[in-house]
Amino acid sequence: MRTGIATLPLDIGKCPPWLFERMKKLLRIIFLTMREEFGVKEILRQLSDPVWFQSLSCVIGFDWNSSGSTTTTLGALKEGLRGLEKELGIFVCGGKGKTSRKTPEQIEKWAQFLGFSQKETDNLIKASKLSAKVDSSLLQAGYQIYHHNFIFTPKKDWVVVQQGMRSEDQTARRYHWLSFRIKDFTREPHTGIVGVKKIAQLNLVDKVSDKNKEISLRLATETPRTFLKDIELISKKSDHLISQKRLSHFCEMELKDVEFRWHPVLKEKFDLNRLKKTIEKIHFFSPSNFENLLLIQGVGPKTIRALSLVAEIIYGAKPSYEDPARYSFAVGGKDGTPYFVERKHYDDLLNILEKIFRKNVFSFSEKKKIKEKTSLLNKNFKKY
Predict the structure, then answer these.
(1) Exposed/middle/buried for residue 14 (C-beta within 10 Å: 0-12, 13-18, 19+)
(2) Which terminus of the chain has fewer Cβ atoms in its 10 Å neighbourhood, N or C?
């Protein structure tokens, strides 16, 4: 997985309409050229690379250090390719805020257009939901997913680029996924994660956390009563706690007759009644693996955190707390870094690229006709 660190402060401003329109045109030319030169699969591979994506955002004139480098770039890409989806073989679903929640609906619409079976459509929707669930529940650094784009092809290959926000320090974090490198959604599935800095967090996608996930699943499906008893013991400050020292974000707990003498516990109170209902629901559905556990409605970060906590404190299955997150200007940046976008230079760039594209590249439909005619000529030639 590509890793790196980039500062992505939340940006409350809007991209100027004159710049957004140019971004759409430039992205259209870039992706038409990439499709012609390298094919659709390579486009997905590049979108899944956080460094390449960051460079793309800078090339079209956005700020390298802004959360909008994700949301605006993907918004401009979706609008720039509108009407070319069939020709390009790239279908962009989702977006920011409320639009992100329409992703399943948009996937279904394009899947019907492409003639996918219901099972194939459901698999794509499942991938979209799981990627969002993993980045909000299995990676817990306080980032709430608010932007989700699911981009797929007629061959059912896909890429996810999504972003979370953390209100306490007004920063964002971007997550990248690529379908043809994923073996398990819950075990190191990312092609890259871009974050502001290293943050101590519960990281259940790390292979180090395999045992913790295994026990957590068993606690929820096979022994829910035992789990509820254990989490109540940990949550309540009973005689089992020798001492409890409050720290920033954490509290240190020492337990009697437990192999692990202390454990960093998130500074929060679990709603035991609500947790009980969720655990009973999980037990009823009895998911066969952690992916299916995540897909159960109501299972979120707190449920996963509680299960992981008991699996570690009571059963000694320590999870990872390592942060998996770890960046080029062509026309300037929206906010003047390193300099403001110069419209004339941007328009000159567009004109040059459009001329090159028109001169050297046939439309895909024309190329298809040429191939068909060539194939027919070859067949006739063979007859003689």
Answers:
(1) exposed
(2) C
Q: Please give the Cα distance from 288 to 123 (Å, whole number).
A: 17
For 7, 56, 58, 310, the CA distances from 149, given in Å and listed in that order, are 21, 16, 19, 34
Global pTM value: 0.78
70-110 residue pLDDT tens: 899 999 999 999 999 999 999 999 999 999 999 999 999 99
Alpha carbon distance 51, 327 (integer Å) = 6
Paired sense of beta strands 2-5 and 190-195, if any: parallel
Q: Give me the chain's average pLDDT, please.
A: 81
Residue 374: band (very low, low, confident or very high) from pLDDT cuts 50, 70, 90: low
- Residue carrying the six token digits 């300037």: 332
Read off the pLDDT of residues 243-255 as tens digits, 9 standing for 90 and up. 334 334 444 444 5
Residue type, 276: K
Give CA–CA dist 329/243, Å, rounded.
Answer: 54
